[in-house]
Amino acid sequence: MSAKTVSPAKPKAADNEIVITRVFNAPRALVYQAWTNPVHLARWWGPRGFTNPRCEMDVRPGGIIRINMRAPNGTVYPMAGIYLELIEPEQITFTSGALDEKGTQLFEFLHVVHFSEKNGKTTLTIRSRVVKTTPEAAKYIGGFEAGMTQSLEKLAEDLMHHGEPIVMKRTFDAPAEKVWRAISTTEGLALWFIELKEFKPEVGFKFQFAGKCDDHGGNKPQHCCQITEVVPGKKIAYTWRVDGLEGCSLVTMELTPEDGQTHLLLTHSGIGTFPKVDHLAIGKFQAGWTHLIDTKLVPYLAGTESVESGPLVLERTFNAPISLIWRAITNKDDFKEWYFELDEFKAEVGFEFQFVVDHAGNTYDHRCRVTEVIPGKKLAYTWRYHGHEGDSLVTFELFPEGNHQTRLKLTHTGLETFPPTPAFARANFNQGWTKLISTDLNEYVEKANH
Fold this sequence. Notes:
Layout: E1 4-5, E2 18-24, H1 28-36, H2 38-44, E3 51-57, E4 64-70, E5 76-87, E6 91-98, E7 108-118, E8 121-132, H3 138-142, H4 144-160, E9 166-172, H5 176-184, H6 186-190, E10 206-210, E11 222-231, E12 235-242, E13 249-258, E14 261-269, H7 282-301, E15 312-318, H8 322-330, H9 332-338, E16 352-359, E17 362-374, E18 378-385, E19 392-401, E20 405-413, H10 426-449
Antiparallel strand pairs: 1-5, 2-8, 3-4, 4-5, 5-6, 6-7, 7-8, 9-14, 10-11, 11-12, 12-13, 13-14, 15-20, 16-17, 17-18, 18-19, 19-20
């Protein structure tokens, strides 16, 4: 975190301070962007009914702010100010004041805007006081608190319209150090995400890359990012925008180690700020992140450096209630939509079932037996191959999440008991389960929800 400042003139009067506080259901970096991006600020600045046909912001210490506010009756109220201090994404200090018809400032407010975040929500606190005034300023100053309150209401509505964030949770069979290298180094990112000339996990570092989806004009959009937060080994966040287009989003990756494994929580918020075009739709980002994490990052982390023994664990959060996911993993009619087609299946301890899979010219006869059932919560069954050594255990566990979502945790233990041949390699199970859970089951759930 770095701070840049210019020294303001000392106020001539210690007028009463106005303090306004509001909590926004959005991450701090996104709210901070709404205050420092002229396109964003123009959408919400000013009382209800006002628009901002001119909104120019030189966002740096000493930079000028010029905004023309147009009232519902067409009257234009010009204002200007200066940025004094910027501590991204924690605090902005600036001055502002209305101008008369000659461009002379009628008064000057000194504002200190503080941003703090907890549990994905942002508390915004504005401290404002008059440091210069004229006799003509009274009517403007008297309406400041009501006007700013309405502005923040508009900002909350604007942030709400940005839509729900993408939230993905995964558990990797890899130590946190390895996952951190994968998301925070040039070499690691190149193996699953993007190839960059340079990447530094430092606040303020900027990077960009060409998108893989064209904009239907034959062009590859240029994606521009800037790191806003780094907690080494635990968290990295960066803004994500598209060059030449409105909108700014925020990507956050958080790591939590547990018993040699690592939980990843990825949040991508603010996608709704982008133009409503196909290649920037939230579904495109969802599919993109799913592909990158499940088909590239997972295999990389399960490579030669990963643990080759112990359980295989996959987690996925679905936008569906537990009842739908439970039905998907226990009903034979639902099985055939995403899993395997069975003659019969009963979620009862002791029930045995089998299915045959042909792969690479070989036939694999799967034999399974249900060992544990907790309705709506847990299903476990043995998994072995007729004619081959070894016996493993597959466990599905369901957990309720917020907003009627369900987190599924799949654990497959005993893989090391199978023959040490390429056909029974751990990577093959990892790839197979990833496709079944993250692609096939997800598609089934989305279709069933509609």
